[in-house]
TrEMBL record:
InterPro entries: AAA+_ATPase, ABC1_TM_dom, ABC1_TM_sf, ABC_transporter-like_ATP-bd, ABC_transporter-like_CS, P-loop_NTPase, Type_1_exporter
Species of the source: Marinilactibacillus psychrotolerans
PANTHER family, alphabetized: ATP-BINDING CASSETTE SUB-FAMILY B MEMBER 10, MITOCHONDRIAL, ATP-DEPENDENT PERMEASE MDL1, MITOCHONDRIAL
Every ABC transporter domain range: 336-571
Membrane topology listed for this record: Multi-pass membrane protein
Key word Transferase present: no
Stated name of the protein: ABC transporter ATP-binding protein
GO cellular component annotations of the record: plasma membrane
GO MF term set: ABC-type oligopeptide transporter activity; ATP binding; ATP hydrolysis activity
Length: 586
């Protein structure tokens, strides 16, 4: 149960002064609080014995006032110290998690879904922060404060009465221990359920258009109701298990009060205790209620914190399996060579790239074509270090590709993926993302090269037009061209367009290709596509099928081979001519 505190030891060490001062403030505040019943008992004894006078009354008033003011100031100091520490822990752990997630590649995110990561980064880290804040408060209250109270009851009143009063509370330990284990298990189950709800909600939001197009709104609403009902029941189980602590404390506390009144009355009658002692003892006993309840609160917090710590540690300790520990720096891209290269995804039963032989000279334009699932994107992912490097030879210049520093490699590459990721910001901000402090002139140049200028003129606010979350307010072709402009403004030594021209018309496509060839002389460009017109001007085209290169050459050379490329080119040309004829008739 206390494992979570041990695992947060690093944080407590880093903020040792803050927590030490907070604990000192908490301890002194508790001491001031427990002195009040002692003074009350003295005052009542003075009244009963008939020795109360103005001077004594003034002393008691001043003593009460000083203790109340000190208690207030000390409580303020430790509450601020502990709970500001809790927020500091949240900030620190979320920053650490974000740094970890940004370093991870595709295999990691295949294991952990977005909704699950969000739950762990919010709910679970918040539970850990409660341990560092409220948890530390109840820990001190249920130990130090309770210990001071018991000591004061024994020293200032009577040890026999104190022990007799505490004995009825001991059975609570068994109840707390047994129910605490249940809370741990049920809380973790509820958190997993919450992660699943998060995952499905994100999918619903992303797929809203498809859901509406297929008139599936009611189905998804019903599914969401069932999920939230299930989450409700699981959280209720946590609450029901935790709810037993309060009544248990009150039940055994009732026995304790009965013992205190019965035995205390006997001691007063026998002259062992004074009336003031008895009243002071009852005040002390009343003050023990919160520390005893705090024990149950502590168990709840530590159990939930332990479950959350396990969930956070799981994603923080997990890796993507990539050993990107290359040490060679790179400032210039050189020739890229694959020799007898093989690769297979961890979840794949067959080889995804087989005996790959490819020489890509610096400054050349390479076209990669093939049917869906032929291995085009898999090859690109090797260049992007998104998956572990396969077997065989994969070199750039005189070094193996994995020997280069990964950040240095990424600075050399501009990548436009199939699934375009745009931010809920302006056109300017999305394009300037590719180059820090890019000028409007540079942005406009990249826009012209991506053939987006005419579209931009139709937007009322021009570069300041907000494109909506994930570009939902613009068309697919516009998304692609903004993404291409973002890559071009970076002016990378390697530009990769992974089927990034599929949503633009043939004329726009040719304009973009011509612009790329013009502005990227002596720089390497790779284009994967299903539309062969996009790679007609390539220096070399490779045709892939089932992870193998089955044809290679220039456009003219491949046409002469009369293989897959030739057949596919004829089909696309026929379709293009038919579309043009229909347009002329209309």
């Amino acid at each position: 149960m206390f494992d979570v505190i041990k695992k947060l030891k690093f944080f407590f060490k880093e903020n040792a002064l803050q927590y030490t001062l907070s604990f000192i403030g908490l301890g002194l505040g508790n001491l001031c609080a427990v002195l009040i019943p002692f003074i009350v008992g003295m005052m009542i004894d003075d009244i009963v014995n008939g020795i109360m006078n103005t001077q004594r009354l003034q002393f008691y008033v001043i003593a009460f006032s000083v203790l109340i003011i000190l208690t207030y100031l000390l409580d303020f100091s430790w509450v601020y110290g502990l709970f500001s520490g809790a927020y500091k822990l949240q900030k620190q752990m979320r920053s650490k998690m974000m740094r970890h997630l940004l370093r991870m590649r595709a295999p990691y995110f295949e294991r952990f879904r977005t909704g699950d990561l969000m739950t762990r980064g919010t709910q679970d880290i918040r539970a850990l922060a409660e341990t560092a804040g409220y948890g530390m408060e109840v820990l001190m209250t249920s130990t130090v404060y309770l210990g001071v109270l018991v000591t004061m009851m024994g020293i200032t009143v009577n040890w026999a009465l104190t022990i007799a009063t505490i004995l009825p509370l001991l059975p609570m330990i068994y109840v707390f221990r047994k129910k605490g284990a249940e809370i741990d298990e049920r809380y973790e189950t509820a958190q997993k359920s919450f992660s699943k709800v998060n995952e499905d909600v994100l999918e619903m939001v992303d797929g809203t258009r498809v859901i509406r197009a297929y008139v599936k709104e009611e189905d998804f609403i019903e599914k969401f109701k069932k999920q939230t009902e299930d989450l409700y029941h699981k959280n209720n189980l946590v609450s029901k298990t935790g709810a037993i602590f309060g009544p248990t404390v009150k039940f055994f506390e009732g026995f304790s009060v009965v013992v205190a009144l019965s035995y205390g009355s006997f001691l007063v009658a026998s002259g062992t205790l004074t009336v003031g002692n008895m009243i002071a003892f009852q005040l002390y006993l009343g003050m023990t209620i919160w520390p005893i309840i705090a024990i149950s609160e502590l168990i709840l917090i530590l159990r939930q914190g332990s479950a959350s710590m396990r969930r956070v540690e799981e994603i923080m300790n997990a890796t993507d399996g990539l050993n990107l520990d290359g040490q060679e720096d790179i400032t210039e891209v050189k020739d890229i060579k694959f020799n007898q290269f093989n690769f297979r995804y961890g979840s794949s039963e067959s080889i995804n790239l087989e005996n790959l032989e490819l020489d890509l000279e610096k400054g050349k334009l390479l076209g990669i074509v093939g049917k869906t699932g032929s291995g085009k994107t898999t090859l690109i992912r090797q260049l992007l270090n998104q998956y572990p490097i396969g077997t065989g030879s994969f070199d750039m210049g005189e070094y193996a590709y994995q020997q280069y520093q990964d950040p240095a490699l990424r600075r050399m590459i501009g990548y436009v993926p199939q699934d375009h990721v745009l931010f809920s910001r302006s056109v300017r901000e999305n394009i300037a993302f590719g180059k820090k402090e890019a000028t409007d002139e540079e942005i406009m140049t990249s826009i012209r090269n991506a053939s987006f200028e005419d579209d931009l003129k139709k937007m009322e606010r021009g570069l300041d037009t907000l494109i909506g979350e994930k570009g939902m307010s613009i068309s697919g072709g516009q998304k692609q061209r903004i993404s291409i402009a973002r890559a071009l403004i970076k002016d990378p030594q390697i530009l990769i367009l992974d089927d990034s021209l599929s949503a633009v018309d043939a004329k726009t496509e040719q304009n973009i290709i011509k612009n790329i060839q013009k502005v990227r002389k002596n720089k390497t460009t790779i284009i994967t596509t299903h539309r062969l017109s996009a790679v007609k001007q390539a220096d070399e085209i490779i045709v892939m099928d089932n992870g193998k290169i089955i044809e290679r050459g220039t456009h003219d050379e491949l046409i002469k081979q009369k293989g897959w490329y030739y057949e596919q080119f004829l089909r696309q040309e026929i379709k293009s001519n038919e579309a043009n004829e229909e347009g002329e008739v209309r």
